[in-house]
Amino acid sequence: MEKIRIAIADDDAGMRMMVRKLIERADDYALVGEAENGEELLDLFEKTRPEVVFMDVEIGRAHV
Mean pLDDT of successive 10-residue segments in the chain (64 residues)? Predict the structure, then answer.
């Protein structure tokens, strides 16, 4: 059975770390990447095609 591919998107590094640690403890899940903002998430999604994204609903945009 293949692992479920998960991405994390949150502008809070501490929250990303907590979610990452939970995913790493579970055998049936694989973390494919983390994003700090919406633009990074879109790039990550295009490259990795996760099946699940844990996302902060108030995530910030990258500063241009």
Answer: 95 95 95 94 96 85 50
Question: Which structure tokens are listed for 42?
Answer: 């879109």
Total-model pTM: 0.83
Nearest to 48 by CA among 1, 3, 18, 12: 3
Nearest-angstrom CA–CA distance, 23 and 42: 21
Question: Residue 7, exposed/middle/buried by CB under 10 A (0-12, 13-18, 19+)?
Answer: buried
Q: Where do we find the tokens 């990258």?
A: 62
pLDDT at 24: 94
CA angle in degrees (0–180, nearest 5) for 36-64-55: 20
